[in-house]
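My current task is to audit a protein record that another person submitted. My question to you is simply how this chain folds and whether the tokens agree. This is what I was given:
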Amino acid sequence: MGEALRALGRNQLALTVTISAEPVSDLHWSLLIQAGLAAAGCGEVRRSDELLVRAAEMAARHPSGDESQRCGFGPAAVEVARVVAALESGDAGEAVCRHERAHRREAWRRLPTEFRAAYLVDAARAYVRVGDLRGAGRALVEADGIAPAEIRLRPVARTVVAEIARAHPVPPGVARLATLVGLTR
């Protein structure tokens, strides 16, 4: 519910829903991450940090290397949430720095494919905000290679592809993506 509300731009409601939900041990990490992202989207940076610290503490107790097992939770999931939280709170430079560190880690590859692809769309948004269109293009092309539906069907991905496709020169692979999503012929 929290993720759906955030996607609709209803961050305050998402924060309220995720914070007030009854913590169920198997899902509490997800609520903390969604609440942290919603708080960042509301501009509540301190609260976002506190919630993501709590999620990180849970991740530290989680069996190592278990990101891809059952639910995709672990330290890598929290780290990518911190990237998105930095972006949502307006610090795209911090988001890019965190992304570049998280993306190099082995645990990144153990996250579920759709999760990684959706996250790469957010990383591309951060690159656009700092003016690095080549970095944004690389992130989108990688996301398309991981889970094409995340690029071709998500409105936010189409928006980022369109923004990057207007650049001159167009970063490698982005012209092809623009054609695939129906933005150009």
User: Anything to note?
Assistant: The two ends are 37 Å apart (CA to CA).
